[in-house]
Design goal:
The chain has 177 residues and is mainly beta. The chain is built from no helices and 11 strands. Strands 1-2-10-11-3-5-4 form a 7-stranded mixed beta sheet, with no helix packed on it. The chain starts with a strand and ends with a strand. The N terminus is likely disordered.
């Protein structure tokens, strides 16, 4: 299911997407049988530590320079659909991982001088989170006021529309463990 929201300050599309990069299937751990019939080692008395949450931010530059889509983006079919299909070229500018801890905002300076702030508001379950995101201008005023998104781990959402060098910035944000 996709949700699209437009902020009135500027064309800012926010789209919740299915995971744009599927994790490779994990092979189940295999216990090796030893001569003499010994069993696999007993499980540890401590439960495995919960993996920390991370926001992966893919910063793209969308233009109409007829250069196509940078192969480093991977599968992101939404770029071929409106409003993203208004641009014919997408280039990866950066890929950043921001550690997420509840109510601890993480800031990322964007190529156009603005600052993206991402904050983990709540863990709704083992694979679901509530995040807030905002983009501030260098003057400190909010360009994209506080936006709240409920997403599953591995699910991406797009924030786009900030002007940058004859095009726009497109931010693909995905929470991973």
């Amino acid at each position: 299911m996709r949700r699209v929201s437009l902020a009135l300050c500027s064309l800012v599309a926010v789209l919740t997407l299915p995971a744009y990069a599927a994790d490779a299937p994990r092979a189940p751990g295999a216990a090796s049988a030893h001569a003499g019939g010994s069993a696999a080692p007993a499980p540890s008395a401590h439960p495995p530590a919960e993996l920390p949450l991370v926001a992966e931010v893919l910063i793209l530059h969308a233009t109409n320079e007829q250069k196509g889509i940078d192969p480093r983006i991977g599968k992101l079919p939404e770029l071929g659909k409106p409003p993203f299909s208004n641009y014919d070229s997408y280039q990866v500018l950066d890929r950043v991982r921001l550690p997420l801890k509840k109510d601890a905002p993480q800031n990322l300076k964007l190529p156009n001088g603005r600052t993206l702030q991402v904050r983990l508001l709540d863990e709704l379950g083992p694979d679901s989170v509530r995040l807030s995101a905002s983009i501030n201008r260098p003057s400190g005023k909010e360009f994209l006021p506080l936006l709240e998104v409920k997403a599953h781990v591995g699910q991406a959402f797009i924030v786009a529309g900030q002007s940058h060098k004859k095009g726009i910035l497109v931010l693909v944000i995905r929470v991973v463990k």
